[in-house]
Every structure is written in C-alpha cells, then in structure tokens.
C-alpha cells in the first residue's frame, strides 16, 4: 500500500477552483464587481508566475467567508458545485483516483485552495483525506483569517510532514500528481513524481529530471 497524493486545481479539475469561486461570487453580486475581479485575476496570474504573496491573497479570498452567514455560504457552495465544479471534474482524473483506490493506496488531496471550497470537492471525488488552507473559525463563523500554515509551495511540504506524523505514515513509495511548478518542493521528495498537463516550467523540470508526464485531458 502506497500514499497517492493529488493536487486538485488543474490536475483533477480542469479549472482553478479558487478563481472559479471568485467568479461565482461576482455572479452572485456578493463582492465588489471591479476591485474583486481585478484582484481575483491578478492573484491567479501571480500564482501561475510563481510570485503569489499567499498571505495577501488569503486576506482578500477569505474576507467573503467572514462577511456572510454559514447558511448563505452553504447555499452558495451547493450552487457552485453544480455550476462551476461538476462540469470540470476530469473523468480521467476520477479514473486515476479509482486505480489507486483499487490498489489499496491511501488517497490524499493537497491543495493551496481553502477547505471551505475544496472540502466538498474532495468528498465528491471520494477522497477522505485533505490538506488545504484552513480558514479560521470562531464560534461557528469564519473570521477571514488563516489558521496555521497555508498549504502553498514549501507550506505543502510542512503540512504534509505534519499529516504523516499524525497518521503514522511515511513517504515510502509515495506518488504525487500535479500540474504546477509551485509544487516542485513536494514533487522533489516523493518516489513517484508525476507532472499532469504541466505548465511550461514544470514540464521543463520534469523532462530534466526524467519524471513521468501525463495528460488527464486527452
């Protein structure tokens, strides 16, 4: 039995769920239509370029969670799953997860997107274990702040190491599937790194290191 780790956005999904949630909020009229759209697009571009200030991003991204009731957020998320996520779940991604499941592997999604957005997506994909950015909750409401280390770049490695200790597991024979050069720190520590429809930087790194390159979109 091995550990099979999956990135989520643009790996098992054909979109970035964080950016899609921002677009959804804009459609609902829940955020400033000019300032929020500009920030949402800019932060996505920064992420793709590898220059994202994760704390500046989360200050903006988590604010709508604090500004709305849990009931409103839950209702919105149901709509979001149906309209924005379900059409973008990659069938070959589901097949990949199923193959590892059939082998008895432990399945884990590690994502830089927050748990509010990704928890229901992981559940839909049948993956019980999730490492995600943890929005702080106080007395049943989001505060707009982050709890703990954001699972981004080296933060993914730190959070994974903490998770492994908690679960009494190791990275022996572990797999990690990702599309992004932002995940190089984690890809470099597993026995089976796999670049999935990779960005140009990751594709080049994978070729240089002899890593497997696959597509879940063909």
End-to-end gap: 28 Å
Parts with pLDDT < 50 across at least 5 consecutive residues:
none
Strand content: 15-25%
- Which structural class should the secondary elements be placed in? alpha/beta
Molecular shape: globular
- Number of helical stretches of at least 4 residues: 10
Task: Determine the fraction of residues in helical runs and give it as a percent range.
Answer: 40-55%
* Main sheet summary: 7 strands, mixed
Order of helices and strands: EHHHHHHEHEEHEHEHE
Radius of gyration, CA atoms, in whole angstroms: 17 Å
Work out the number of β strands.
7
Which sequence of strands runs across the widest sheet? 4-3-2-1-5-6-7
Mean pLDDT across the residues is 97
């Amino acid at each position: 039995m091995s550990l099979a780790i999956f990135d989520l956005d643009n790996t098992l999904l054909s979109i970035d769920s964080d950016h899609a949630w921002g677009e959804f909020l804009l459609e609902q009229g829940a955020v400033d239509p000019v300032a929020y759209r500009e920030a949402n697009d800019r932060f996505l571009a920064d992420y793709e370029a590898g220059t994202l200030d994760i704390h500046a991003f989360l200050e903006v991204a988590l604010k709508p969670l604090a500004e709305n009731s849990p009931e409103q957020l839950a209702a919105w998320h149901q709509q979001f799953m149906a309209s924005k996520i379900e059409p973008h779940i990659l069938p070959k991604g589901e097949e990949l997860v199923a193959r590892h499941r059939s082998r008895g592997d432990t399945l884990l999604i590690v994502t830089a997107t927050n748990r509010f957005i990704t928890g229901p997506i992981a559940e839909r994909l049948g993956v019980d274990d999730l490492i995600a950015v943890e929005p702080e909750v106080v007395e049943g409401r989001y505060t707009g702040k982050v709890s703990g280390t954001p699972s981004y770049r080296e933060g993914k490695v730190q959070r994974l190491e903490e998770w492994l200790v908690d679960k009494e597991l190791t990275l022996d024979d572990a797999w990690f599937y990702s599309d992004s050069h932002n995940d190089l720190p984690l890809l470099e520590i597993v026995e089976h790194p796999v670049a999935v429809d990779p960005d140009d930087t990751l594709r080049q790194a994978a070729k240089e290191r002899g890593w497997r390159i696959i597509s879940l979109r063909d």
